[in-house]
Design goal:
The structure holds 2 protein chains of 2 kinds. Chain A is an alpha/beta fold. In chain A, 40% of the residues lie in helices and 19% in strands. In chain A, the strands form 3 sheets. Chain A has an 8-stranded mixed β-sheet, sandwiched between helices. In chain B, helix 3 packs across helix 8, helix 6 packs across helix 8 and helix 9 crosses helix 10. By secondary structure, chain B is an all-alpha fold. Chain B has one domain. The chains are: A alpha/beta, B mainly alpha. Chains A and B meet through helix 2, strand 7, helix 8 and helix 9 of A and helix 1, helix 4, helix 8, helix 9 and helix 10 of B.
């Protein structure tokens, strides 16, 4: 009997050790690296051993044309993320091969390059165009073609249209209201708005979002003029808007339109601050010199924001790009690329449909990224806290950061003067 | 009144730009669709040189004029003359020059896009200040005033030269019948080169003035103006200097009225609709002539 008991205990011990060994082996297989300098935690599940040696991903963004400033910045974010993903062996022995196709800032070319990439069966996923006009042309192709596509910017309807389409940038109309605090502090009672009709995003901000904010705050809209994308001279609309004697003027334009409008606004005698949009970023206001100072706009990212994951991203970006400060386009693209990597890992496959399923799983997790901490996906759109910045004539100053995601409560980092963060 | 000043300034830019196009189209039958690129690249070259040294206003203008003229001459010698030599007839030559101009325009555009990454560029390092001249409740900048005066002076000078000088007469003769003009001793090539150089110089001048006035342009800015200039020439009548003025002012006025009185979305629709209406009534344009004589 004593021997039977001993044999029983020995069998139990062996079984326990085997079970423990199996558990240890399972844990070793399923945990990858911690995921990027600020790419958030590892995706759960996913066996990278079945991934191909190279996973081809194509960025279809404008690197020439009127929106090139955003497309080029986004590509820098993709480059940094892919470099980290590969160096850290986040996908095991698989590496991501990033290719770039120029959409030339036109919808027709954007559709063409997307079609080419979709037709290439070796392409696992796409990074879509930053331009709404182009993205709207690409989304139906990607959705129908069954290719996962992740956008940044492209904040109009008709972009996120199905389970293959994601957007790693909140809609501008979602975060634009964080400017309410600035408006309230300044005590503005009336506003005049000039906005471009060239993009659906700014049509929405100028035609609906900002007037709604004004109404909520008890302000009067003294004038609202939509201008075409081909407009180069803003003297006439500025003169008309200033005729209404608003407390504050809003200029919602893209690219080179911003410095021209600011110069002509100052020439017309307006010296106050101007509510703008992130289309004035990327140094687009520099040609306006001192006349450009005073434009204020909400944006989803600024290199001075204080979240730990954002600061890690900024440090990594500067190290890779010669001490250059990253733009929001780069931060968005960085998070988009890490989201894709986590999705591939979750899927354990470079198959397009499986990546799509992986994206759905990963999108349920809150994460810390370049755009901030506690980021969440809602209906395949990323939600971020957002910040408000002011152009001082030479660079952007951070005025304040929103407290959290999807809230209008603001937690200022300063009393309104510039801050460079801790 | 302030809107009128703005419209006048805008029209003057259209005049300076369109005058060059009209000059070559109305005399040597060259509709140069690279004109917009020449305009932009002249300004871009001045911008590049300004990065190296703080250049005064007159030097910047000179750079624009010289670069515009040289670029135009280069295009004429390397492209348009070769097309003309090989074309089987005048009609096919005109079409090939039109297409060739569109193709050639991409080269300076691509160079500027590559260098600037399509971000706006201006003359912010220039020691020249754009200042405001105020009179009562109205104002005009020094650059706008210069543009208006130059457009008037150069337009009148061009018109007088074409009508009263020997070279102008010879150029007009080429426009009527180049072969007969050649038989009469007119050096077609020399005059064509001269016309292209003047055309390019005007584009370069317009580029510098517009960049100072707007504060910034992009590599694509020339394309927008090209369409407007083409419309102004058609509206005013091909080959007519007075027509260029009339077309430019009518277009600028229509744009300003629509912009200030309605939603800005209708600017192009109304402006070009107006041109369509005028052409229904006068197909040759406001100052164009029906007869064979095109100048």
């Amino acid at each position: 009997m004593h021997d039977e008991v001993f044999r029983g205990r020995r069998r139990f011990a062996v079984r326990s050790m085997v079970a423990a060994g199996a558990l240890i082996a399972l844990a070793a297989c399923s945990s990858g690296s911690s995921g990027g300098s600020s790419g958030g935690g590892a995706a759960t599940g996913g066996d990278t051993s079945n991934l191909p040696a190279t996973i081809k991903v194509v960025s279809t963004n404008p690197t020439t044309g009127v929106v090139a400033f955003a497309g080029n910045a986004a590509n820098k974010g993709y480059d940094l993320a892919v470099k980290e993903i590969n160096e850290q062996k986040f996908l095991g022995n698989s590496t991501i091969q990033l290719e770039k196709s120029d959409t030339k800032s036109t919808a027709a070319t954007a559709a063409q390059v997307a079609t080419t990439a979709i037709g290439d069966k070796s392409v696992a996923a796409l990074f879509g165009s930053v331009s709404s006009n182009e993205a709207v042309a690409q989304s139906p192709l990607a959705q129908k073609g069954g290719v996962p596509i992740i956008y940044t910017q492209a904040g109009s309807d008709g972009v996120v249209i199905g389970d293959y389409t994601y957007r790693a940038t909140p809609l501008m109309r979602e975060y634009y209201p964080i400017i309410k605090k600035f408006i309230q502090e300044k005590g503005y009672k009336s506003i005049g708005i000039i906005y471009t009709q060239a993009t659906p995003t700014l049509q929405n901000i100028g035609g609906q979002t900002l007037p709604a904010i004004a109404k909520e705050l008890g302000m009067t809209v003294t004038g609202s003029i939509g201008v075409q994308g081909t407009t180069q001279d803003y003297a006439a609309p500025i003169s008309q808007i200033l005729g209404g004697k608003p407390d504050v003027v809003s200029i919602l334009l893209v690219g080179a339109q911003n410095p021209t409008a600011m110069k002509q606004l100052r020439q017309a005698g307006y010296t106050g601050e101007v509510l703008g949009n992130s289309g004035a970023s990327a140094g687009n206001l520099k040609p306006a010199g001192a006349d450009g100072a005073g434009m204020v706009w909400p944006v989803d990212f600024n290199y001075q924001q204080t979240a730990a994951s954002s600061k890690k991203f900024v440090a990594a970006y500067k190290a890779a790009n010669g001490a250059e400060d990253p733009l929001n386009y780069a931060a968005e693209a960085y998070d988009a690329a890490w989201f894709l990597a986590k999705s591939i890992k979750q899927a354990g496959s470079a198959d397009r449909a499986k990546i799509k399923d992986g994206m759905a799983v990963v999108a349920k997790e809150k994460f810390d990224g370049a755009l901030g901490s506690g980021l969440i996906w809602v209906d395949r759109d990323l939600q971020v806290p957002g910040v408000v910045v002011r152009w001082n004539g030479e660079k952007e100053d951070l005025l304040y950061e929103a407290a959290g995601v999807s809230t209008s409560t603001v937690s200022p980092t300063s009393s309104g003067s510039s801050t460079t963060g801790p | 009144m302030q809107e009128l000043i703005g419209a006048l300034s805008l029209a003057s830019i259209y005049v300076l730009f369109a005058l060059g196009m009209s000059l070559t189209w109305g005399t040597i039958d060259i509709l140069n669709f690279a004109h917009g690129s020449i305009f932009m690249f002249s300004s871009f070259t001045a911008y590049l040189l300004l990065q190296r040294a703080p250049l005064p206003f007159l030097v910047m203008v000179l750079i624009g004029i010289v670069v515009g003229a040289l670029l135009s001459l280069l295009i004429q010698v390397l492209a348009f003359e070769q097309i003309l030599k090989r074309a089987k007839d005048k009609r096919s030559a005109e079409m090939q020059i039109l297409i060739g101009g569109i193709g050639i325009a991409i080269v300076p555009l691509s160079i500027a896009q590559y260098y600037t990454k399509s971000t706006p560029f201006g003359f912010e390092g220039s020691p020249f200040e754009v200042t405001k001249l105020t009179f009562g409740n109205y104002w005009i900048t020094n650059v706008q005033l210069m543009t208006i005066v130059l457009a008037a002076v150069l337009g009148v000078a061009t018109s007088l030269w074409l009508r009263r000088s020997r070279q102008g007469l010879a150029l007009r003769a080429i426009g009527v019948d180049s072969e007969v003009a050649s038989i009469m001793g007119v050096d077609r090539r020399r005059l064509a080169l001269g016309a292209m150089a003047v055309s390019g110089a005007l584009a370069g001048l317009a580029g510098i003035l517009l960049t100072y006035s707007l504060g910034a342009i992009t590599p694509e800015s020339g394309d927008t103006l090209l369409v407007k200039a083409f419309a102004a020439i058609i509206l005013g009548g091909v080959g007519s200097t007075a027509g260029v003025y009339a077309g430019s002012f009518l277009l600028a006025a229509a744009e300003t009225v629509v912009l200030t009185q309605t939603n800005g979305l209708w600017v192009d629709a109304v402006s070009f609709g107006l041109i369509f209406l005028v052409l229904l009534v006068r197909p040759s344009g406001l100052f164009g002539r029906k007869e064979v004589r095109r100048t």
